[in-house]
Design brief:
The chain is mostly helical. The protein contains 9 helices and no strands. The protein starts with a helix and ends with a helix.
């Protein structure tokens, strides 16, 4: 054992000695590489404009989830689909990811005319340097404001106008602020979605009541009514072509 320990110690000492006498050459970065500098005099105004455009694009991308949820038709669609899922009692049959994907693509379909108008009046002229950044933001916000105002109830909008203390006499559709319009639009969308959800719930509740009454009359107390009513709900939904009617109603409610 002592011999083995001596051999290990001797080997380690030899390795350390070799490492100490070995030299490693470090190579510097090539001197010909030009790195961008903030104070570079050779930079042109177009370079700064391009950097600002990239910054604006990245900012919009980071805020995109909030914009999609709070400023488009996504809220109404996803809430109605959630009501349908709960009313039918199919929590495990239809994944939430599928309903979210359907809501996203329906939102894209509904918002395409608004996006085309934003792109035509705001984005493309700004990229072509025909309008300023302030003008581009103003022109791009007009179609979105028009869409949101069309779906917002006057009562909800007046609520936030009164709370914010905005002058009603000088308030128009063009100068209403997004901080006032967005929450009013959100609660209006939730109210509309709840109204549609109530109408969706009614036929399925009737089926549950009929099935529960029949089972109680037959003395089958231990059998869950939802287990028996689920096939009847599915048959009713398929026979009336429920997905077609639901999606058609949702899309037409924004037209």
């Amino acid at each position: 054992m002592k011999k083995n320990k001596k051999r290990i110690i001797f080997t380690l000492m030899m390795a350390l000695g070799i490492m100490m006498f070995c030299t490693v050459s470090a190579y510097a970065a090539p001197s010909g590489t030009d790195l961008p500098q903030l104070g570079d005099k050779s930079s042109t105004p177009q370079d700064y404009v391009s950097s600002i455009k990239i910054l604006i694009f990245l900012t919009i991308i980071s805020l995109m989830p909030s914009i999609v949820i709070m400023m488009t038709s996504f809220t109404r669609i996803i809430v109605v689909l959630s009501f349908l899922k709960s009313a039918m009692g199919i929590q495990q049959a239809v994944p939430n990811q599928m309903l979210t994907g359907l809501a996203l693509f329906l939102t894209l379909f509904i918002m395409v005319p608004v996006y085309n108008e934003i792109n035509t009046n705001g984005i493309q002229p700004y990229l072509q340097n025909t309008i300023t950044q302030e003008q581009a933001i103003e022109e791009a916000s007009k179609p979105l404001k028009a869409f949101m105002l069309k779906q917002t109830r006057e009562k909800d909008l007046e609520l936030f106008v009164d709370i914010s203390g905005t002058d009603k006499e000088n308030l128009t559709k063009e100068n209403v602020s997004f901080t006032t319009l967005i929450p009013a639009f959100a609660i209006s969308e939730l109210k509309t979605a709840f109204q549609i959800g109530f109408l969706i719930y009614l036929p399925f509740v009737v089926i549950d009541m009929v099935i529960a009454s029949v089972l109680m009359a037959m003395g089958m107390m231990m059998l869950p009514p939802t287990m028996v009513s689920l096939p009847f709900k599915l048959i009713l939904f398929v026979m009336v072509d429920g997905w077609y009617l639901l999606v058609k109603s949702l899309v037409q409610s924004f037209m």
